[in-house]
Structure formats: C-alpha cells, structure tokens
Amino acid sequence: MAGHGVFPEELAGKTLAHYRIVEKIGAGGMGDVYLAQDEHLDRQVAIKVLSPGTLADEPSRKRFHKEALALSKLNHPNIATIHDFDTQSGVDFLVMEYISGMALSEKLAGRPLPDKEMIRLGLQLADGLAEAHRHGVIHCDLKPKNLMVTADQRLKILDFGLARLRLPVSPTAPTETLTQTTSLAGTLPYMAPEQLLGGQADPRTDIYCTGVVLYEMATGQRPHSEIEPAQLVGAILRKAPLPPTRLNAGISTRLEDIILKCLEKDPENRYQSVRELAVDLRRLLLPTSTAIPASSVPRRRRARTFVPMGIAAAILLVAGAWIWNLGGLRERMTGRGHAPVIRSLAVLPMANLSGDAGQEFLADGMTEALIANLSKIRALKVISRTSVMQYKGVKKALPQIARELGADGILEGSVQRSRGRVVVTAQLIYAPTDTHLWAETYERDLQDVLELQNEVARTVAREIRVALSPEETRHLSSARPVDPEAYEAYLKGRFHWYKLSKDELDNAELYFQLALDRDPDYALAYVGLADVWMARSDTGILAPEQALPEAKAAAAKALQLDESLADAHVTLANLATDDRESETEFRRAIELNPNHAMAHFMYADYLISRRRNQEWEREIQKALELDPLSYFVRCFYGWHLVYIGRYDEAVAEMQRVLITQPEWSSAYLGLWGAYYKKGMDREAAEAAEQFFAGLHDEEAVRALKEGYKEGGYRRAMKHTADVLATRSKRVHVPAVRIARLYAHAGENERALYWLERASVAHESPLAHLAVARDWDGLRSDPRFQALLRRMGLPLT
Questions:
Q1: Element at 101 (helix H, strand E)
Q2: CATH architecture type of domain 15-97
Q3: What tens digit of pLDDT does each residue of 313-346 get?
Q4: CA-based angle 342:389:407, to the nearest 5?
C-alpha cells in the first residue's frame, strides 16, 4: 500500500516521477530535502521526501493532499511555491520552488542584523504572511530555518502550513519530544502561548512567531534564551522576555515596541493582523518617519503597585472633571475635541519599497495620482507635483518641509509592487506639531489601482473633516478598472515626459501609445500624447503645423472619453485660436480641478498677454501658492515681470531658478530680455549665448561671440539672425527666434518679415506679442498693429 514502502537512505541519482534527484540539500522534522531537475519543464526544483510513516494511512494522505492543494494556490514573491505532491514506490514527496540562497538562521549565526536590513526582511515576511492569511492559510512554524534569503535580499517563506501535518491523525503517526518540536505543530522556542495550551491557531499565532523572529534578528538571541530548556514552556506562558534594547542598545525604542507588541501573551493585545504590523514597520523606513503614537504600539508594561485609596481618589477627580467638563474633558474623552485643522496639504513623493529601481515610475505615478485626486477637492489647497517632487530622497523634518511648501498637512507613504498586486501605505501628519493623525495600508490588484487611489483620497478627506461636494463625492467613489499593462505604460510615459528632451519625448510617446494599444479607451493616455505633441511644438523640435493638429486631436479624444479631465481642457485652451474658446477651456479646467497649478498658471499667462493685469495678479499668485518651488512657474513668472517692466524683480527670479536649473535655456531667455530692456548689452549677449548653449546650438553661440567681438550687441544679434535664417532653408528653425534677433539688432523690416512667417505657422510665443518687450521698436508700425488685430490681441 502506498506510504508503507521502505524509505530510501540515499536518493541521489534516482528518479521520482519525472524529477531526477541531484543531491541532498537539507533535512527537517518531516524528512529530507533534495535538489532535483524537473525533466518535463527543464527547471530546478526542491523535493521534500517525507519520512516513513508521516502519512500512515489513506485519511492522512488525503488530508496532506488537501493541504498541498491549498498551499499550491499561494502565489507571492515572498512565499516558496508548491508545484506538486506525489507518491512513488512507497515514497511520499512534495515538489517546491528551488530557492538559491541562505537560511536566515545561517545569516544570523547568533549576531543581530542592522536595523534597516532587519526591517526590510521583516516587511517581506509580513507581506508574505498577509497573502497567506488572505487565503485562510496559517504557517504555525515560523522560524529562521524556514526563511530563506536570496542573493538579491528577497526573503522567502518555506514549509507554509506544513507544521500542522505533524499532528497525528492515526495511532501510528509519530510525535516528537516537546523539548525540540511538538505534535502541537511548531518549534518550541518560536511557539505562541496558545499553541502550547492546545488552543486554536489563527493569524495572531503567526504574528507571535514573527515577533520571535524579529527579536532574534534584532538581538542575535531568541526570547528567553537565558532560561533553562526545562523551564522554557513556563517562561513562554508567563514570563515577559528581556527588552531587546537590553541585549542590543543600538536598536530604536520604536522597533523594540513593535517587537514586544508581537510577543504579547494574550492574542487580543498583539497586532490583530500582519497588515497592522507592516504599517508600523514601513513607518520606520520612511525618510521623514514620525513617532509611532502610543495608541498604535503600546509602551511596555511596567511593574506597578496598586493603591486602593489612590484609585478611589482618582476616580472621584475624573468624575468631578467630567461633571463640570473641566478643560473640555468630555469632548476629549468622547473623541469630539478640537482636531487639528488642515486647510492645505502636501503629498510627499511615495517611497519605492519594491527593491527595484525600475519600479520608481510606479511610486512617482502614485504620488501624481493622489495629488490629482485630492486637488479636485475645492475646500482643500493641495501643493502641486513639481514642488513636492523636489523632496524626493531628501531627509528633512516634516515641519520644515511644511513651512517651505506652505502646507498644514503632510501625506507620505510607500508603494510596493508584488507581481500583479500593489501595496500602498499612507500616513497623514499634522505638520505644525508633527502629530500623526492616521495611517493605513491598502492592497489591490493592479487593475484596481484607480479605486485604491480614490479610497486613499476619500479617507484623507474624512480624516481632515473637509466638506465634499456631491460632485467630488461621486468622483472619488467611481473608478473604471484599468488594464495593468496600460496603466504601467502610462506611468512610464509620464516619467519620461517630465524630462522634456527630444529623446525623452519620443520615449514618452511610445509608452502612451503602448497604453492605448492595451486599452483604446484610456483617456489619460490621450492627454499624455497631446502633451508630447504640444511640448515638441513649444520647444521648437517640430514646426507647429506638424505638431499642433496631433495635439488637438489627442486632447479632443481624451475629452470625448472623459469630459472631467482638467489636463485635457488646459491643453485645448493652449491650442485654441479663438480667445473666447481659450478662456472657456481654462475656466472649465479650474472648475474641475481648483488646485491645478498649471491651469492657474496658463490662465495667468493668457491674461497677461491680453493686458488684464489685475486678473493676472490673482491667478499667478494662486499658481505660486499651489506650486511654490516649481522652477517652471517661477521662470515664466519672471518673464511676466519683464512684460510689466519690473526688470530687477525678473532678474532676481530668473537667477533663483538658475541655482537649481543651471542649464535651463528658458531662464536664460528671460534674463536676456530683462538685461536687454535695462540696457545691459554685455549681460544680455552673455544670456543669449547661454540660451543657445542650452539648446546645444553651437553655431549660434559662435555667431554671437564673433558678432559681439566685431561690433557689439547689435552686430551679434544680426550676425546670429543671418546664420539661423540661412539654416531655416534646410531644417526647421522657429521663425519667432529669428525675428527676435533681428528686432534686437534694430532690423525692423526683417523682424516684421519673420514675425509674419511665425504668425502663418501659428507659433505659440506669438501669444505674448502685445506685451513682450522684444518688439517695443516695432509697436508703432501699422503692420505690427495689423498683426495684433489679426491675432485678437490688444493694440499698443
């Protein structure tokens, strides 16, 4: 009968089913482990050959098969996969994923691990357990020997759920002595009190075992290692372990509190799920980690003496305070006290905990999505992406970051991707007092990530008690599923788009198109395509007649699919040739997303070009408030200051931008205009050289230098204009760029000729024709006035 055969002492070189045994690689309480080659799938596997008698009869074999079937459904990066279970020639064996690495027990070898390494391994252990618990599977025998660490520092949990198979199901099934392992399922030093008492194991049992493993990683010793083995059971049941800091003074008290909460004797006092444990561990990895509140991780219980009279007096005092509501006690004890008021919020860059730099786009994309969702809440000011991304990888105190951004609240967190699922941890901080208000961990399939983002936004709105309009509530309660590959491609497209070079824009287009190949109705991907084509036109990479129709078609398609996309309305506003249409689109974008910094900035740019300076002041200040550290907004605010004649302020703004963006051509273009109007010819010429150097136009830089040496500023401008005009016969050169050089040279006829060509091509810089100071020498010319009229711009 199967299962009654003679157990072979040596299997190396033999074959079980279609598995060729290579060598013995380990031994355990249930049998030996061998490295084998799967002849069918040409891969290495690990085979656990069960000891004779482990499955003594058909009931035990059926039970084992049922367990193996359940375990085979666990699919997670931190869990060793079960491939197969079979019996051959009386030998029962389990086929598992082969993991090349080192057992955690070997890695420890009696020595503690550094805090960060221990926390990262602990997080992976918690993530693997969370997946198993989600499927109703409990390990029951967690210990360093059952945890493998691969060369790339990935932790893998072995022997999931197999400890329970040690429970005898027939009189002939073997048991082992309690001093080493026990028929109660588990290994004694790592067993929870309820296991020793024969109680029902649940996820909190694994949490206790995890606490023991964390304790050993933190100190190099197991809890109660000072206790004689004969007294170990009593110590686990009744004695508190030595605080880890007594054995390793280098670990933090917060980490110690987490470990000791896992090791509480009563399961009710432990973490109630490994997700709660993971939240506290992740906080310790955040670059601006705040203190964990006492409600989350209780401080260690200290021995105390109870004095009955003291207790009675305290009760009377509290009762009196309650009756007379001294200090607002009733409100505070019932949770109705004054909660911190958050009117402005900054979402800091999410940390990428995937252990893979290639997943950085996912963390950045999640940051952007949370900002976009929260920005639609009218009652809340949300700082823009370009400002908060400057804190990526920066270690600063949260109150300082909040002051620099002008925010009351900080939302920070992390993202971890595990195959087709994504785990997001978020925590909300009241920045002025560095007070932790709320934390949560979310896990979803990648296709449900939009709903995850909405849920985080809804929770934040609830926690800060901000009023949501019915429209905002509807928006945050609905999200269509998204194809995971389409979503990933979209995020990668955005990641490349922000770099705005020719090559990066090409990469962005490829990813946005890939997203649409996967999901043709993905509106955001069409917005991405529109932005790519717009950027190509604005930066002079392509002629407007090539780029702008593509941009307009993509933006229109995005709005056809989802009318509520503010970004698409901003793009259409910039593309519109009719003033009324432009303003309508800008206002609609701001209505849809009142915190859209770029919508406010672009509307301000539109207003100043129409000389509506009072309205401009309101919109530009809103943009600066929402995006205070954006070099883009700051730079073009400097341009606006040139338009209204505030040249010294403009120079100061541009120079501040160049501190962080020393090669950005647009800042030098602004400086060039300011110095030109101040009559500072040498400085203006140098700024012009830097502008063309930023465009990698070495020929124009040489022309400027040669021209200035030959005849000063005007000669430099004319010589360079001639060079670019000649080049334009071969390749695209923005006509407005040539017109500007001729205007600065005093060559008005030529300047007007090239302005006409720029007008025919619909070049975007002409939107500022009525206010840009480059054209002051042309304003009285009737042809210039006619050009302004044709463009619907105010006459000067």
A1: strand 101-103
A2: 2-Layer Sandwich (3.30)
A3: 444 444 444 434 444 444 344 343 455 678 888 8
A4: 20
